[in-house]
Amino acid sequence: MKRIIKYCVISIVVILLLAFGGFYIWSQQTYSPSKELYSLVGNVNTDNKHHWEVFEPKVNKETGIILYPGAKVEPEAYSYFAKGLANDGYTVIIPSVKFNFAIFDVDKAEQVMKSYPSIKKWYISGHSLGGASAAAYAYKNPKKIEGIIFLGSYPGNSNDFSNSNLPMLSLYAEHDGLSTLSKIKETKHLLSQDATMYEVLGGNHAQFGMYGKQKGDKKATITAKQQQDKIIEVTTKWLDAQRK
Predict the structure, then answer these.
(1) Comparing C-alpha atoms, which of 166, 100, 158 is closest to residue 130?
(2) Measured in whole angstroms, how far is the alpha carbon of residue 222 from the centre of its chain?
(3) By CB count within 10 A, which of 45, 72, 136, 237 is most buried?
(4) In the beta sheet, which residues pair with residue 169?
(5) pLDDT tens readout for residues 101-145
């Protein structure tokens, strides 16, 4: 009997190790930044100690934005968007996350905030699963966050902000094949009473970053740069309005 139990335990451990190994290999098959992004942004300022992408404005460094990347999307893919916000006076940090899934690193914002003590106000943002993870952090730490910016994303059912006045900006796209218009509509009740909704006409899911096509997404009828320029414009106007 002891021998049978021993073999069962060993078999379970081997199966778990194989499952984890398979997941790890799959999680490392990431969406890389497009060539267009590098041609537009140039060199990206990477914090080599933490493996974060950092974009700082020349002046007014008191407000920061933490941007959680989408599942399996490399942080650099959001560099054009981040640089656009930095040009308007906001410090933007895009951290790397465990296994390239922000859901496994919801509290990464804590580490970012501690590394930038001079920043007085923090917003948190995220694309796709990164947005749901950002919402999870904000839900647990409402006093640390000034607002949430969703990029083709929405809160999970366990994070109901309907009784909150936390400022939110929800950017969603007409041809998003993953965070579809129906999903955005179905989860709208989870947003706060101070939520602003904006539909990017012609846009899709992948073009909230710049990393090419994504499986399951629909075809956009505007270019990636056009979508990026639009969400930068809308986001900076919304952020500037929060200052008043």
Answers:
(1) 100
(2) 21
(3) 136
(4) 149, 196
(5) 999 999 999 999 999 999 999 999 999 999 999 999 999 999 999
Q: Residue 39, Cβ neighbours under 10 Å: how many? A: 8
Is-contact 169 234, C-beta < 8 A?
Answer: yes
Give CA–CA dist 106/191, Å, rounded.
19
Q: How many angstroms separate the CA atoms of 86 and 81, rounded?
A: 9
C-alpha distances out from residue 198 to 28, 172, 184, Å:
32, 6, 11
Which residues have a Cβ under 8 Å from the Cβ of 240 and sit 6 or more positions away? Answer: 88
Q: If you write DSSP's letter for every residue of 150-201 in order, what string do you get?
A: EES----TT---TT----EEEEEETT-SSS-HHHHHHTGGGS-TTEEEEEET
- Output the pLDDT for position 47: 64
| β-sheet with 195-200: strand ranges across | 46-47, 52-55, 91-95, 63-68, 121-127, 147-151, 168-173, 195-200
Contacts of 189 (CB under 8 A, 6+ apart): 162
Asked if 217 contacts 176 with a C-beta cutoff of 8 angstroms, the reply is yes
Structure-token pair, residue 234: 């809308």
| CA–CA separation, 126 and 99 (whole Å) | 16
The answer to whether 73 and 211 are in contact (CB under 8 A) is: yes
Residue whose structure tokens are 């974009």 = 55
